UniProtKB/TrEMBL annotation:
PROSITE patterns: PII_GLNB_DOM. GO terms for biological process: regulation of nitrogen utilization. This is P-II family nitrogen regulator. InterPro entries: N-reg_PII, N-reg_PII-like_a/b, N-reg_PII/ATP_PRibTrfase_C. The lineage of its organism: Bacteria, Pseudomonadati, Aquificota, Aquificia, Aquificales. Coiled coil: none annotated. GO terms for molecular function: enzyme regulator activity. Pfam families: P-II (PF00543).
Length: 117
């Protein structure tokens, strides 16, 4: 059996209010991020108390999470853009290391492993 080649990437998860979603998506696009997943109507508890998902007719007051996997070289641009925003708005960012098998789906890796794609 042939082993699967895995590549290290970064997963960035951004949680903001629905009214701030367009800012986050624009930031990711400007940073060169090639894709993302959006999860609407999050519920949870944080420093601002409990947030309830599924508010009728009010997507702007709910929480959303944008999840993206990207090469490490793009993370800095995303963090530089989101940090001043989060200093004035509610939200949080998580960055973690992940391994992916189809590295070409996540943009330009810019490493020597790129030749193996």
């Amino acid at each position: 059996m042939k082993s699967v080649k895995l590549y290290e990437m970064k997963k960035v998860e951004i949680v903001v209010t629905g009214e701030d979603l367009d800012f986050v998506l624009d930031l990711l696009d400007r940073a060169g991020v090639t894709g993302y997943t959006i999860i609407h109507n999050l519920s949870g508890k944080g420093s601002h108390g409990f947030h309830e998902g599924h508010l009728l007719f009010n997507e702007e007051d709910t929480l959303v999470m944008v999840i993206s996997v990207m090469p490490e070289n793009l993370v800095e641009a995303v963090l530089e853009g989101i940090t001043p925003f989060l200093n004035k708005h509610s939200g949080v960012v998580f960055v973690s290391s992940v391994m992916v098998s189809r590295v070409g789906k996540f943009g330009d890796l810019q490493t020597s492993d790129k030749k193996e794609q």
